[in-house]
Specification:
Elements: E1 7-8, E2 14-19, E3 25-29, E4 32-47, E5 54-70, H1 75-82, E6 94-102, H2 111-114, E7 120-122, E8 128-129, E9 137-145, E10 164-175, E11 181-193, E12 210-216, E13 226-230
Antiparallel strand pairs: 1-10, 2-3, 2-10, 4-5, 5-12, 6-9, 7-8, 7-9, 10-11, 11-12, 11-13
Length: 233
């Protein structure tokens, strides 16, 4: 009997989301930090006899969860995380901008702000004012015109949830016997993107990652996931 060939994985996966209706790829992720496949199930048993040990065990409630942690994001990946259609609106007429500043001892507004078109000033309590005084902090706002097609926007509504996709992921598996790498692929024929999303914005620590959690569903043929190893070409 020949020795079993054992493999180790020490690389991230490149993941593709596929449209379940057209079969076309809609998102390619090649900047992942971690991709995790977690499989869980529940158990119940019949117990009896001295010591009441388990006599028969039944498994049920199989769950497979795929977690993708991306080092970077795109508007397309954000739209899939938040929207069922994944549509990106590229026609925006204006973007609301604003900030805070403090006048100097002469009551002057910084030139970079006073030169803006249509700027409005507000006290810190939110009351609009036409005049500013010395050594006082104000809020300001203005509209910046954006030509159609030069901005991207994702609209999230109360009825809008992420969609369902086919997902494939490719990485390398290294053979213990030969020391060579071979392709290792996981395929999820039907997966629903989890609607619970968190976007973290912070200055300290490592750069924020963008996590996408996907629940695996049962397709018509019953194959919830396929794991394949094939030669690297």
């Amino acid at each position: 009997m020949g020795m079993l060939d054992l493999y180790g994985i020490k690389e991230v996966a490149d993941v593709v989301f596929w449209d379940t209706e057209t079969g076309n790829p809609v998102l390619y992720l090649d900047t992942l930090k971690v991709s995790t496949i977690e499989e869980t199930a529940d158990q119940t048993e019949a117990r009896g006899g001295k010591g009441n040990p388990p006599l028969i065990i039944w498994d049920y409630g199989k769950e497979i969860t795929l977690t993708l942690e991306d080092a970077l994001f795109s508007m397309k990946s954000l739209s899939i995380m938040h929207s069922s259609t994944g549509a990106v609106n590229t026609s925006v007429s204006a973007v609301k901008r604003g900030g805070k500043f403090t006048t100097d001892a002469n009551g002057s507004v910084p030139a970079s702000i006073s030169s803006l078109s249509g700027v409005k000033y507000y006290s810190e309590t939110g009351t609009e004012t036409s005049e500013v005084v010395a050594n006082t902090t104000y809020l300001y706002s203005y509209n910046q015109a954006v030509s159609a097609g030069s901005a991207e926007q994702i609209t999230v509504t109360s009825e809008d949830f992420p969609g369902t996709y086919r997902i494939t992921g490719d990485t390398y598996a290294r053979s213990q016997k030969t020391g060579k790498d071979e392709f290792f692929q996981f395929e999820v024929p039907l997966a629903k993107v989890n609607p619970e999303q968190t976007i973290t914005m912070q200055a300290d620590g490592d750069p924020s990652t963008f996590s996408m959690t996907v629940r695996v569903m049962r397709p018509e043929d019953g194959a919830m996931m396929r794991l394949t190893k094939y030669p690297k070409v």
